[in-house]
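testing teh design pipeline on a random one, pls ignore if ur not involved
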């Protein structure tokens, strides 16, 4: 088949994974997640991997010799989850290099890669490439910024590269190391622009994309977010966190800074009421959804579908069929 890629993007709680599975079954596809929270092993419920009880995890060998985790869920392959442990660092450059190999593997077997997620920066790195991937560290700048507070680093990044700050997920936006790296990149980008342009690194050699965006009325989206958080509590996120701590994961680990996990720290350590945890969690998810929409709305290639419309899935199927047959 031609080297096509279907993309399903949008804010959290709009049903992207469910739609992705449906498209995979209809168009002989395999899902590739672009969610910066779902790359961590063992962080399943809080990050919303939305796997059924029948899902099985397999190790799959790539032509490069690497072995990668892949879920088989209801006969659909799902890639991009469980790539690293909570103790490991994982840059957008590492993510891109690995996912490109996975997509090549999917193409070589004659299937359709379906990119599903809400991490806009990861998606941009895959589709368009980013000029930041090979910028070397600036030790002098890092030393200068090492005494800055998180708030001061955020203000510095907003001043240099506001768009990059808006693209960051909640844990990255509160992580000093990630903020310093973003400032470092922002300054180097400005320097390169004054030198007459920036060279971009492209990962995927195809322009045959169909971008599907799922949107929702704000009030309804926030209601869905609240329902999702409550369901994750019923599904056992508290027990999941207990298991992670017992396995040696620390609250200071980057994975534990993710939404759905960090909000539980005071509950476990200070006896905070569960109702307060849920309030904080829901607010953070709503804030994330607003940032995601701000980012995705700037992308003019996306064809948007309002999920409140009763016929939206039929419209999506029509659009995909038309593109797939070309």
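output:
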């Amino acid at each position: 088949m031609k080297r096509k890629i279907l993309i399903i993007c949008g804010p959290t709680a709009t049903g992207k994974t469910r739609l992705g599975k449906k498209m995979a079954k209809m168009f002989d596809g395999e899902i590739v997640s672009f969610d910066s929270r779902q790359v961590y092993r063992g962080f399943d419920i809080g990050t919303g991997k939305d796997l059924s009880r029948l899902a099985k995890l397999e190790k799959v060998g790539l032509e490069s010799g690497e072995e990668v985790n892949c879920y088989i869920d209801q006969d659909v392959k799902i890639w991009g989850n469980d790539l690293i442990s909570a103790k490991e660092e994982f840059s957008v450059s590492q993510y891109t290099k690995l996912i490109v190999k996975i997509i090549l593997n999917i193409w070589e077997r004659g299937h359709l890669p379906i990119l599903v997620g809400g991490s806009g920066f990861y998606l941009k790195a895959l589709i368009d490439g980013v000029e930041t991937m090979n910028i070397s560290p600036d030790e002098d700048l890092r030393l200068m910024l090492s005494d800055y507070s998180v708030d001061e680093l955020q203000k510095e990044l907003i001043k240099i590269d506001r768009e990059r700050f808006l693209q960051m997920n909640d844990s990255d936006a509160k992580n000093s190391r990630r903020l310093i790296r973003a400032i470092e990149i922002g300054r180097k980008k400005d320097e390169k622009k004054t030198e007459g342009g920036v060279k971009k690194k492209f990962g995927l050699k195809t322009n045959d994309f169909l971008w599907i965006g799922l949107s929702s009325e704000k009030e309804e989206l926030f209601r869905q977010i609240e329902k999702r958080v409550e369901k994750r509590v019923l599904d056992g996120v508290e027990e999941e966190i207990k298991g992670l701590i017992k396995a040696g994961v620390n609250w200071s680990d980057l994975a534990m800074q993710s939404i759905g996990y960090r909000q539980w720290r005071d509950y476990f350590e200070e006896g905070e009421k569960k109702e307060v945890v849920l309030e904080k969690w829901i607010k953070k998810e709503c804030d994330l959804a607003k940032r995601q929409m701000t980012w995705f709305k700037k992308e003019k290639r996306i064809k948007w579908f309002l999920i409140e419309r009763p016929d939206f899935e039929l419209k999506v199927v029509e659009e995909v069929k038309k593109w797939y047959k070309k």
